Amino acid sequence: MTLATTSRLAVTALCFASALMACAGPKTEGQKKMSQLSEQMQRLESALQQSKTEIQKTIEAHDLLVANADADLSGNFSRFQSAIDRCTARQKEIGTLLDQISATSTSYFAGWQADLDRIDNSDLRARSE
User: Fold this and answer.
1) Is the separation of the CB atoms in 51 and 19 below 8 Å?
2) CATH number at residue 73
3) pLDDT tens digits along 3-46
4) What's this model's pTM, rounded to 2 decimal places?
5) Residue 20 covered by a domain
6) How far apart are CA 116 and CA 124, in angstroms?
7) Helix (H) or strand (E) segment spanning residue 125
8) Helix ranges restricted to H, 2-72
9) CA dist., res. 112 & res. 37, Å (int)
């Protein structure tokens, strides 16, 4: 490869990188809200998965308590109560996450509606709704 070819490739790569950076410029308010909503949904998914595991452990603790095969009623009850407490805490966390998602999505769609109201072309507005 000649020096001229290498230089042209370098300039082309630099122009391409600059164009990509320009496209990834500052986010709009809607993009920020959507990113925030996406992160909140990921946290909710994780909390729901953890909740599923905790519910399974609570059922196991319940079964041990009912069977009382090891004759440790007090210990089995304590394990069951701890499992219930963890489920209750997870339920509160999920409720908080749902409230955050609701607030973020309400704000996002209010901004979307404001944008729609600024569209003068009735055909374009109808397709955007």
Assistant:
1) no
2) 1.10.287
3) 444 445 444 554 455 555 555 555 788 788 889 989 999 999 99
4) 0.67
5) no
6) 9
7) helix 122-128
8) 3-23, 29-67
9) 14
